[in-house]
Amino acid sequence: MSEAAHAMSLMQQFAINKTIQMRETEGLFSVNGPPGTGKTTLLRDILADNLVARAQILASFAGAQDAFLKENRPFEAADGSTVPVSLLKPELTGYGMVVASSNNAAVENISRDLPKRDAIVAPKEFDYLKTIAHKFAAEKGYGRFERLKEGDMPWALLHKGRRGFTSRIP
Questions:
Q1: For residue 156, with 0-12 CB atoms within 10 Å meaning exposed, 13-18 middle and 19 or more buried, which class applies?
Q2: For residue range 56-76, what is the model confidence (pLDDT) as tens digits?
Q3: What is the per-residue pLDDT across 106-160, written as a single tens digit (0 to 9) for each?
Q4: Distance CA 51, CA 99 (A)
Q5: Which range is most confident: 22-36, 39-53, 127-141?
Q6: pLDDT for 95
Q7: In Å, what is the CA distance from 115 to each residue of 38, 48, 60?
Q8: Burial of 42 (0-12, 13-18, 19+ CB in 10 A)
Q9: What's the whole-model pTM score?
């Protein structure tokens, strides 16, 4: 998904490979480095692999209903009512990413830049829940929306945590 000029260094590729390997078990992986060393590019490639791995599982199902367990979990809505919520099958979970730093501006930049359409090299029609992502990116408050600049158009729905310190695949 990255520009060819931004090919991974040996250690970046090692970090990507190790992260993908750890996804199959459990683990926590840390990537550290000074500004401008390719951490965001590395995270983008890990994110892309997570999307592809999850899509391969989804593609093996006969229908959308096959992605969910048979039993539901009760969920209490804001109005106090209880509604049943279908749970994803375990093989579709565990693709989350947490981005944390002592420098909140760096994490905010990653959260803002990863979903931008201009941040990837892919066919124009490539997207991951792009319509919903556009709504979230354009929303600036309850019922207020802002027209996005061309470079700020999202290619994917990436969830930004309430405090702006996390990003994860929905």
A1: buried
A2: 999 999 998 999 999 889 989
A3: 777 777 777 776 666 666 666 666 677 777 778 877 778 888 887 777 766 665 5
A4: 17
A5: 39-53
A6: 81
A7: 16, 11, 26
A8: buried
A9: 0.65
The residue range of the domain holding 27 is 4-168
Where do we find the tokens 């470079």? 151
Which two three-digit tokens encode residue 10? Answer: 């040996």
Burial class (CB in 10 A: 0-12, 13-18, 19+), 2: middle
Supply φ then ψ for residue 129, to 5 degrees. Answer: 55, 45
Characterize the bridge pairing of strands 159-160 and 167-168: antiparallel
CB-based contact 169:50 (threshold 8 Å): yes
Number of structural domains the chain divides into: 1
